[in-house]
Amino acid sequence: GRAQMELGAFIAKQCANVRGAHRDEFTSRISYAHGQYDQEAAFARLNDKLLELEGCSGAEQCNRLFFLSVPPTVFAQVCENVHRQARAVRGFTRVIIEKPFGRNSRSFAELNNTTS
């Protein structure tokens, strides 16, 4: 997984080129959660953080969209952990996968089946 870092360091690194009047407003909406792909406990902590940020009671609908920028070898594992520990209680959960999705039609079909 990605190395653990403090939120300020994460923002400084990832938003170095964000400039202008709206920078502070934009960066105030950023949060960072560290965890390992294969640890369900990390996804449970992520879920707790998302519940805090969403401010949803159990009766409200809060949707979740996950953007995966991870190695293709862990797509399935991350999707499984999101499903087990961090999916929306009410509302939808969607996953966007950044990388190429499979090496050929067979690996595409396997990944598609696993992440559906």
Automatic annotation (TrEMBL):
Q: What class of enzyme is it?
A: oxidoreductase
What GO annotations for molecular function exist for this entry? Answer: glucose-6-phosphate dehydrogenase activity; NADP binding
User: Organism's domain of life?
Assistant: Eukaryota
**Domain Glucose-6-phosphate dehydrogenase NAD-binding per the UniProt entry, residue ranges:** 16-114
**What Pfam families does UniProt report for this protein, alphabetically?**
G6PD_N
Q: Which residues form a coiled coil?
A: none
Keyword field contains NADP = yes
Which pathway, metabolic or otherwise, does it act in?
Carbohydrate degradation; pentose phosphate pathway; D-ribulose 5-phosphate from D-glucose 6-phosphate (oxidative stage): step 1/3
Looking up Gene3D superfamilies in the UniProt record yields: NAD(P)-binding Rossmann-like Domain
Protein name (Swiss-Prot/TrEMBL): glucose-6-phosphate dehydrogenase (NADP(+))
Taxonomic path: Eukaryota, Sar, Alveolata, Ciliophora, Intramacronucleata
